[in-house]
Model the fold of this input.
Amino acid sequence: MRWPWSRATSQDQLVVSWSGQVFSYARARIQPGGQIDVRQIGVERQGTDSLEELVSRLKAQGFGGLNASIMLRPEQCQVLQIASPAVAPEELRSAARYQIREMVDVHIDDLTLDVMHVGDGQDKSSGQMFVVTATNAIVREVMSRANTMQWPVTVIDIQEMAQRNLQFALAQRAGTGDRAEAALILTEERQAVLTISAKGELYYTRRLDLPPGFMSMAWGHGAEAVAADAFTPVDEYVPDYSPDNTGLGMEYQPGTSQGGNDADRVQRLVVEIQRSLDLWDRTWSSKPLGSVRVYAGERSAELAAWLARETGQTVSAMEVEGLFPGLKNALPQDRAYCLPLLGALLRT
Done:
């Protein structure tokens, strides 16, 4: 997906995300043969520094004046799914803008958007399309920071597309590139991103909210204590893409019954993941899900074992070090946050 302000690409790549006070980066050089040599990767936090002080710190580390791609984090953009308008290709954006006007919580003129087909556009998915939106204010902010750093911005990407690139690269390496596979990436934040792709095309995506402290909770322990009727089975699940309901929508209040105990909140994530996988099976019976790859930093293997036991799916930890040996240079606590940036590098 190429946004309207894209410029020419370069072999020397800097991919960044800059959301709030958190700046994450992956700087790489494309070697002959296509190998991506990651030379710098990590996270810089503004903390008590002013923005000007952070910019000075980044320039001192050699980030100024590089060709850059910017990846928007989930909190900076929205991914909607709609029926493809029956219009000429050059009119899709205008038609999509009209169609989503009731689905967003800002005036439609205050949004920048792009569109893409669900899947490859050749089969059942051709009747659906993704609409990616970001407020003009967010776009102005990231471009203002890029100008401050003197970056010629080559492209603005989103995490879902970067994640799709990662899972396809891993599938190709495993010899399963023609199969449908899911990926789930958890970061230190309160949201996980689930994507399902096949043959390098994105077919499904959903954002799942996590309760505070989820990454330090015990997973798969105490689940026996969850009552069998703690969750109401559903016959049909259709994702709600409205602005205030892009995840699980759980309100976490320690010490109260509203959020339930940790076992309840942990198990709720399993339920929502299972709903998404069940929806896939019903909607895409011609593309059975081959496997699920998950990433949760140092707890990836634990997450994979837990979800495999709970869902009955083939689940494995997302191992990307074979593709990007430089990931080991990021601090352990920063690797999950940096991982999607590596997927953005793969667009080259």
The first strand starts at residue 12 and ends at 19. The CA atoms of residues 88 and 140 lie 29 Å apart. Helices lie at 51-60, 92-99, 136-148, 159-174, 262-283, 300-311, 335-345.
